[in-house]
């Protein structure tokens, strides 16, 4: 299934929300594919279209450096075992069912490269939560349950050449030297990308990121 164009995505979510229950949309995809950019834009467009929506990134469940150091995993931050998957799952379940109070979610600060607890408020009136991250379609525990907690999971498609260029630039923007960025992409991001790409076929929808022509 292929679909392009922001308005069509908004209409798709409107259809999912018609039953009245809060809708949880997940966006999976490789590092640098544009998941966060799309999620932020979609939440804004949904809200403007009368469906209050909040962007809640999976990246908020990065383990803190202090925990990664203890586990000896700091040097491959971003791999599947450097996230608190069960914590994310618990939050998604709360977001789905706990609609009478504000639910707070963690964000991920790219300057500090650390998760920040309680940074994002999802108020009772939120009809849609847009989440996104690398591993939403993974078959490893507990990720199948994460997928089951979502209404739909989409996959962000972007040409690999463009993706790698944007990803490398983003690393440089947040403090790596060009050499460090290239090495991090090759040694950390791309092994993760291979595993993520293998989950693509199980998405409910494939979103052509370039066809959306989002500005960053
Ligand atoms: N349409 C676009 N044109 C140019 N750069 C973009 C575009 N969309 C996203 N970007 C940039 O590409 C990088 C990767 O996008 P991001 O949304 O962070 O990807 P992901 O969340 O999948 O890792 C970011 O630096 C972002 O600003
Ligand atoms: Mg992102």
From TrEMBL:
Residues 24-83 form the Phosphoribulokinase/uridine kinase domain. The keyword Kinase applies. It comes from the Bacteria. One of its GO terms (molecular function) is ATP binding. The keyword Manganese does not apply. Keywords: Kinase, Transferase. This is Pantothenate kinase. It comes from Nonomuraea rubra.
